[in-house]
Model the fold of this input.
Amino acid sequence: MIVRSASLEKVCGVTSALPDTGKPMIAFAGRSNVGKSSLINCLVRRKALARTSSEPGKTQTINYYLVNGEMYFVDLPGYGYAKVGRTEREAWGRMTERFLLRSKDLKAVLLLVDIRHDPTEDDKAMYSWILSRGFRPVVIATKADKLKRSRLAPAYRNVRQALGLKEEDPCIVFSARTGAGREEILELAGQLAQGQPTEPPRSPSVPS
Ligand code: GTP
Ligand code: MG
Done:
């Protein structure tokens, strides 16, 4: 897939009604500060289309980026951000859950984890949730530039093993700094966007 255009089309907060976009959507989920917004910028080759920050908790809304006028990349608020109060965090969690459960054009939720660290309980919960929703699981192990080459393979195996990925489940090593893995993610996103409708949801709770 080649990105020809990208623009921020819609921003939803906790009280917003979620849009019926009528176009396939690919969402990016993961812990706060893992690099979801940076990944979107890298995919669309725009430095600051999605707002990023070295401080966790930058994205507090659900942001819909229209790509090539035909599909959406959706940037979700990160979970596990301890600094905001529980009430606010739960509100983001509920908003994300509502998005994941009710977006009928959602084709995939790509899960970002930091390649340097063991996936958290929240990451595991999100992974299970993605499976239970009937999506094909796709994991992106990001910030690969922060590891020495010799550390990449063991770190990659650690992520796969900790999440319990099956052999056929893709896990893409990515870096927003170097662009490693970009083409692969775009290819997959393009394919997933054209995919078949998924099964109805079963389990309710996503991490917040
Ligand atoms: P929230 O919006 O808080 O959920 O965070 P996010 O997941 O959108 O993370 P964001 O893209 O804002 O990135 C967080 C920090 O990590 C920023 O300082 C980025 O520059 C940095 N970062 C993101 N991806 C990479 C990467 O691949 N390599 C390196 N070295 N830094 C990265
Ligand atoms: Mg963000």
Q: What stands out?
A: Residues 86-102 form the longest helix (17 residues). The chain has a mean pLDDT of 90. The first strand starts at residue 6 and ends at 12. The chain has five helices and seven strands.
